[in-house]
Design goal:
Elements: E1 7-16, H1 18-26, E2 30-33, E3 46-52, E4 55-66, E5 92-100, E6 106-108, E7 112-114, E8 126-134, E9 137-144, E10 151-159, E11 171-175, E12 179-182, E13 192-199, E14 208-210, E15 228-229, E16 241-247, E17 251-259, E18 264-274, E19 277-283, E20 296-304, E21 307-315
Parallel strand pairs: 2-3
Antiparallel strand pairs: 1-4, 1-5, 3-4, 5-6, 5-7, 8-9, 9-12, 10-11, 10-13, 13-14, 15-16, 16-19, 17-18, 17-20, 20-21
Amino acid sequence: INPLAEIFNYTIWRAIAFVQASKLIAGGATVWEEGTTLKALSSEPSLRLAELQGEPYFWTKVGEVESSHYIDTYATTVPTLFDSTATSAEPHYFQVIAHGYATPEHWCSEAVAGRSVDNLAPAAPSGLAGAQVYDPAGLALSWGPNAEADLAGYEVYRGASVDFVPDAENFVTSTADTLAIDEGWSSDGGYWYKVAAVDVHGNVSSFAVLAPGTVSSVPTASLPAVPLIEQNFPNPFNPQTTIAFEIPSQQDVTLRVFALSGRLVRILSLGETHTPGRHEVVWDGRDDAGRQVASGTYFYRLEAGAFAETKRMVLVK
């Protein structure tokens, strides 16, 4: 007798761990032991207890396919519980059972093992944008977060044209955040940027692309027309105070502290190059030798290009 003529449908079963089986049993699942009658169709959760390679395994039904006299082979997709990786190389075990029209009749296939490998890349990052920043100086790249649960982070590349190929030579940085700052950027560089999402299995998304002409910059109105130095805060102070200043362009800055007599007490910056924008420097009330200075009035002087200004501060103890 042709067995295909006697088959009503097929059920697909996956082996599961004892812990998972215990949860299903606690939730009311029926356990069918090997050799007992199997129900081809059942609305209730069910488990099979059968041996695999001499060891007892629990099996749960994960799929069902109708039989047809006109089909020679069958195929279906069933979920796996995890991806096989270097740290988790365990296979998945599956088995197919053919059920006859008479309820007790069934034929079990041999168990087949397979490994699930994640080869699905994440979606490309969305909303890639770039804005010039000044502290630190460079380009701030930002984009929207990906929704993939297995996301590892993002990779950023910089090239000279839209068709540049991302590689180790033009790699900028990798980050788990949705923000990256490229301090190698310049406004006249004509740089293109490509950002990709990467998952924990090394799958790389397609690239989000940022063109040079789409980079925004800080409005000039937000920067002072000439350097300025603010009053230190707090003032009077003990034991330290903050001195803030702003410069309209990249300049070499010297900031020094003098005693009331005019004696140089501390050099906080000596010709150091600073980017446009606001900067803060903390003075801890010590001289260049690291000694705590006495209470009294002191002056701090900022020099930036042709600009120079002096303000007074008071240290109290």
